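HUMAN: Forgive my ignorance: could you write out one protein's sequence and backbone structure tokens?

ASSISTANT:
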Amino acid sequence: MIKIILTNLIPDRNEQEKHDLKILEWICKENDNCVTVLELSKILVAENKVKPERIMESLLNYLKKNRENIVLIDTSRDHYWRDTFEDSIEGLKIIHNPYPDTLFQ
């Protein structure tokens, strides 16, 4: 089972990466197969040579194809990713588990 972690969107790329690392350390156990949605985007771009304007399409296709082996864990307060994926794909396993910080309150 792959755990795809949905995090808040932060405009500053460096801050986004720091935040995502904190989230991964908080929610993923040592042997878990975890990746943030933004890390997954980077992997899909690298593996499939996806153009930037096609990243969302690539993510949606990946989730549709692998939905039986994926659980999405929404740690965000904005729910952008969760809303986007739920509206586009039926049958996704989604858990809401907000990260307990005050940065986005």
Q: What stands out?
A: The longest strand covers residues 2-6. The mean pLDDT is 89.
